[in-house]
């Protein structure tokens, strides 16, 4: 069987015959004759980019699409985690946490997708429909000190019950948290009592866990507002504090400014903030703006086992890296790599910040990014910017070199290939996340 992982978490297990069957039904001219035995290995690169969203299984619903030469439609093997893990469709109680530790228990079906669960939580909390889209469900891991390490944002196609139970570890939980970056949208959320309470609880939690920096005088003012139950004023003051609205990640390793540096990364305010500990124990802080990241990629690798032959490869630790190409100065691009188990979550944060920037740049409203209720059914706005999760690739080549020349005032991104030391072929553009909020630096910016 093949283990199919979605964003680093086991999605389902499928047989070789299922992957081969899909390959044979879809077909692709890019696979040479006689390569059928390798079809499942080619599936991710050859089949998926060609059929795109036309062939998929979403939440257990097996989809058929008509293709050339198949007037009856193409029957696609179902890779639904619920079916492949043999989880029956039934009513269950799912526990969702709020930032203040409160537990919201909702009755759902095992086949319910992320949006269904989010809707159930919102209904239980009496959160208005037009505010539901400002919040998302996140998979987190509870640490010993009661804080949470964010694994990833639950994607639309996922089945939250299956995602969390398949991990077989009570430390993994689902938490409700705001899913936007611009603090000006706080005004929309604070218009309603439930939205205000959720935002207030998250702000208090972030301060208690040290995500938001507070000095003694600010702490005194916040305490006074808390005692007066002045929630709006509390949030207004918090908005002026350093790292408000940032998501803080676990300590990890970076190659900037030199290899092997320990770093604490925070995401917010359209940037990645680095607090780097240099080899001489000196701490330096700096930020990388999203608008100056030309592209990024997430890679994974499994180190070779030193154990005896036949030892389980599943016990090897998978190493995840996020690498982004950054415009350090005019005409000078440089790759920066972060090695962290939370690399996927970092990539999701970058993508959502870019999406939000592009919506604002086009003059759109954030409300249009989110779902609407129409005749009792959920519909999504056509203007929504889809957030794509990153592919898991081989380890990036250590011999990558920065681009020597950059066209001035780029309005879009043209992705270049990056050569592997073991091959003369370039990595295709699909291996990267191109950033259409990328802004070239002109002479007046230096």
UniProtKB/TrEMBL annotation:
Segments for region (Disordered): 378-432
Recorded topology in the membrane: Peripheral membrane protein
Keyword annotations of the record: Cytoplasm, Cytoplasmic vesicle, Endosome, Lipid-binding, Membrane, Protein transport, Transport
Domain Ras-associating, first and last residues per copy: 90-181
Broad class of where this protein is predominantly found: membrane
GO biological process, one term: signal transduction
GO cellular component, one term: cytoplasmic vesicle membrane
InterPro entries in UniProt: PH-like_dom_sf, RA_dom, SNX17-31_FERM_F1, SNX17-31_FERM_F2, SNX17/31_FERM, SNX17_FERM-like_dom, SNX17_FERM_N
Highest taxon of the lineage: Eukaryota
GO molecular function list: phosphatidylinositol binding
Regions of compositional bias (Polar residues) in chain numbering: 408-427
Localisation: Cytoplasmic vesicle membrane; Early endosome
Primary role: Critical regulator of endosomal recycling of numerous surface proteins, including integrins, signaling receptor and channels. Binds to NPxY sequences in the cytoplasmic tails of target cargos. Associates with retriever and CCC complexes to prevent lysosomal degradation and promote cell surface recycling of numerous cargos such as integrins ITGB1, ITGB5 and their associated alpha subunits. Also required for maintenance of normal cell surface levels of APP and LRP1. Interacts with membranes containing phosphatidylinositol 3-phosphate (PtdIns(3P)).
Entry's family note: Belongs to the sorting nexin family.
Name used for this protein in its record: Sorting nexin-17
The species this protein was found in: Pedionomus torquatus
């Amino acid at each position: 069987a093949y283990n199919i992982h979605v964003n680093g978490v086991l999605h389902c297990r499928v047989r070789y015959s299922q992957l081969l069957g899909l390959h044979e039904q879809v077909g692709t001219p890019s696979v040479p004759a006689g390569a059928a035995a390798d079809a499942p290995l080619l599936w991710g690169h050859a089949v998926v980019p060609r059929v795109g969203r036309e062939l998929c299984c979403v939440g257990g619903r097996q989809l058929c699409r008509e293709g050339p030469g198949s007037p009856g439609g193409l029957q696609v093997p179902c890779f639904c985690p619920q079916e492949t893990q043999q989880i029956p469709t039934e009513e269950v109680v799912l526990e969702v946490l709020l930032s203040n530790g409160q537990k919201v228990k909702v009755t759902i079906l095992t086949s319910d997708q992320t949006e269904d669960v989010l809707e159930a939580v919102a209904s239980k909390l009496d959160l208005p429909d037009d505010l539901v889209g400002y919040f998302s469900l996140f998979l987190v891991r509870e640490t010993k000190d009661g804080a949470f390490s964010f694994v990833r944002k639950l994607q639309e196609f996922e089945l939250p019950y299956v995602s969390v139970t398949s991990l077989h570890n009570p430390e993994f939980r689902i938490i409700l948290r705001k899913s936007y970056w611009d603090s000006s949208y706080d005004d929309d959320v604070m218009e309603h009592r439930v939205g205000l309470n959720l935002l207030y609880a998250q702000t208090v939690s972030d301060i208690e866990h040290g995500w938001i920096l507070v000095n003694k005088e600010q702490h005194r003012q916040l305490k006074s507002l808390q005692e007066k139950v002045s929630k709006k004023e509390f949030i207004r003051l918090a908005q002026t504090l350093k790292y408000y609205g940032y998501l803080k990640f676990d300590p990890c390793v970076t190659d900037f400014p030199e290899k092997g540096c320990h770093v604490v990364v925070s995401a917010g305010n359209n940037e990645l903030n680095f607090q780097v500990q240099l080899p001489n124990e000196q701490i330096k802080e700096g930020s990388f703006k999203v608008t100056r990241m030309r592209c990024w990629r997430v890679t994974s690798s499994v180190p070779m086992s030193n154990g005896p032959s036949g030892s389980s490869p599943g016990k090897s630790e998978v190493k995840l890296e996020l690498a982004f190409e950054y415009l350090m100065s005019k005409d000078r691009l440089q790759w920066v790599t972060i090695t962290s188990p939370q690399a996927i979550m970092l990539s999701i944060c970058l993508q959502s910040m870019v999406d939000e920037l592009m919506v604002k740049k086009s003059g759109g409203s954030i409300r249009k990014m989110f779902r609407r209720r129409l005749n009792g059914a959920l519909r999504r706005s056509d203007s929504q910017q889809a957030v794509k999760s990153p592919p898991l690739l081989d380890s990036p080549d250590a011999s990558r070199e920065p681009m020597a020349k950059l066209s001035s005032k780029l309005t879009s991104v043209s992705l270049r290939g990056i050569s592997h030391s073991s091959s003369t072929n370039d990595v295709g553009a699909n291996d990267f996340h191109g950033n259409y909020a990328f802004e070239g630096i002109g002479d007046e910016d230096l």
